[in-house]
């Protein structure tokens, strides 16, 4: 049976991350630290015999994926399906601003209320549907290959919950699975219900630039 190796990689630190702002669908670039993280992550993944690279079409994800594409001479396939959740009125705001101005949306988000649609944005359920639909297409197209997807903390959280069978149509609330900037979630997939988690939020490759804080949420 063919074994597919899947790597879900969060983008490097963005300017918005550094300022404590909700990114959503905004075109926030990587910070200087984020650029360093992307380069180091590319060097680590280049050792994994990667066959194909996918990325969210948001700037911070593409900017993180490009160094790996250049190292391996592979194109970065961009898709809106792997974007972060659209957070509507919260986009670009700090956490404190969001809490003060839009408390209902803010608390529904941080409490992981799956069905709540943020004003002007999406629900986690919307995010899950578009991201898992694209994931199935990718896995069908690249069975038996080593696949990297560069995405975002919310998207990776819900894809991971889905892959390990921790979310279904009846789920109303979920835990939050933290993936640090340029953290790697590594899976081995033999078929839909045979998924092995080989690494979760692996940031060992980042220790030289983030030190003892390598596993911190960013």
Task: Kindly describe this structure.
The protein has about 220 residues and is an alpha/beta fold. It has one domain: Phosphoglycerate mutase-like (Rossmann fold, 3-Layer(aba) Sandwich). Helices cover about 35% and strands about 20% of the residues. The chain has eight helices and six strands. The chain has helices at about 15-20, 30-45, 60-70, 95-100, 105-110, 125-140, 155-165, 205-210; strands spanning about 5-10, 50-55, 75-80, 145-150, 185-190, 195-200. The protein has a six-stranded mixed sheet, with helices on both faces. Helix 4 packs across helix 5 (about 105-110). The mean pLDDT is about 95.
The assigned CATH architecture is 3-Layer(aba) Sandwich
Q: Number of DSSP helices?
A: 8
State the share of residues found in helices, binned by percent: 25-40%
Quaternary organisation of the protein chains: single chain
Mean pLDDT: 93
Whole-number count of domains: 1
Question: What is the strand tally?
Answer: 6
Could you please say which CATH topology applies here?
Rossmann fold
Largest sheet, in brief, is: 6 strands, mixed
Determine the N-to-C terminus distance: 38 Å
Q: Classify the secondary structure makeup into a structural class.
A: alpha/beta
Largest beta sheet: what is the strand line-up?
A: 3-2-4-1-5-6
Can you tell me the CATH class?
Answer: Alpha Beta
